[in-house]
Amino acid sequence: MTNDDRIGPPLLGSERETLRAFLDYQRETLAMKCAGLGDEELRERSMPPSTLSLLALVRHLAEVERAWFRRVFEDTEAPMVWSEKTFDFQAAYDASTSTRAEAFAAWEAEVETSRRIEREAASLDLVGRQPRWEKEVSLRMVMVHVLLEYGRHNGHADLLREGVDGTVGA
After folding, report:
1. Residue 81 CA to chain centroid, in angstroms?
2. Backbone phi, then psi, for 127, in 5-degree steps?
3. What pTM does this model have?
């Protein structure tokens, strides 16, 4: 990757500033891994029988953002983005008819909702209810969990991007 415009986290930031910056850095990493690719390239699957593709990851992470921010802190009944089933994260992986525009619009909208929820929270101690677990969780825990989701899936994105066009790095 030659263009790396990601903003690194602060070296001496507060807990909240650091979590926010690391999460945004991982979000920017996903977008960077998809940069410059068309719909067909973004839909290229890793290997049969897997449906994993870069576009599938974008769709999945839109679901993750919704499930962990919107559904925990605003609307436990908010539907999944791509599935009629309540906790079906697998539907997002079928990106066979999806487009960059559709997937990124959904992902960007969910990211903005997540950022707004975090910004409006008085502290990381804000408590919400995770409907899947039927347990209370803090904003701190949610931010760390979503950060870990991005870290794991950006590792997949590294391999997928290399498979699409040989691009490696960052």
Report:
1. 13
2. -110, 135
3. 0.93
Are 164 and 37 spatial neighbours (Cβ–Cβ below 8 Å)?
Answer: yes
State how far the Cα of 138 lies from the Cα of 130, in Å rounded to an integer: 10
Using the structure block, give the residue that is written with the tokens 């969990």: 145
Q: Give the Cα separation of 156 and 161 in Å (integer).
A: 9
- Which candidate, 168, 136, 165, 169, places its Cα nearest to that of 41? 165
Please identify which residue in the block is written with the tokens 């903005």.
Answer: 112
What is the rounded distance in angstroms from the CA atom of residue 155 to the CA atom of residue 72?
Answer: 26
- Structural tokens at position 36: 């410059």
| Residue-by-residue pLDDT tens, the chain, 170 positions | 567 888 889 899 999 999 999 999 999 999 999 999 999 999 999 887 888 999 999 999 999 999 999 999 999 889 988 888 777 777 788 888 999 999 999 999 999 999 999 999 999 999 999 988 999 999 999 999 999 999 999 999 999 999 999 988 76
**Tokens found for residue 138:** 């803090």
